Amino acid sequence: MTPHGEFHWNELLTWDAPRAKRFYTATLGWTYEDMPMDGESYHVCMSGGKPVAGIFQMPKGKGMDGVPENWFAYISVDDLDARLALLVKNGGRVMRAPFEVPGVGRIAIVADDGGAAMGWMVPAE
User: Fold this and answer.
1) Is 105 in contact with 111 (CB distance < 8 Å)?
2) pLDDT confidence of 85, banded at 50, 70, 90?
3) What is the DSSP secondary-structure string of 66-108?
4) I need a surface site. Which of 21, 25, 57, 119 has the fewest CB within 10 A?
5) pLDDT tens for each residue of 21-79
6) 111 has which bridge partners?
7) Are 110 and 63 in contact (CB under 8 A)?
8) CB-side exposure of 38: number of CA atoms within 13 Å?
9) What is the reported pTM?
């Protein structure tokens, strides 16, 4: 498990996953393993047989319209509820309440006191 306070995962949020996959295959040599997610596919980027990132196709009409393509980072935390309480106490905000992703971990989407968004998660063991 990734130690507390370290970056655990990065994913590309894109409007065109096939284009993004072609680009990262051509430039970085990535291959992909697809996994189902809410009726769509989540693309796990592989380098040397090891998962290194993810590509998420943003769904149209589900609250993400107008969001620019971006890389999104997730930081590992030791206790999500306790860390969220500290986040709020110190001027941050919870943008999406904690949710469970089976086999991945418990995640919340947060913003720091300056508005920078990220995911905080307790990775699955």
Assistant:
1) no
2) very high
3) TPPPEEEEEEE-S-HHHHHHHHHHTT-EEEEEEEEETTTEEEE
4) 25
5) 999 999 999 999 998 877 778 999 999 999 999 999 998 887 778 889 999 999 999 99
6) 93, 117
7) no
8) 6
9) 0.85
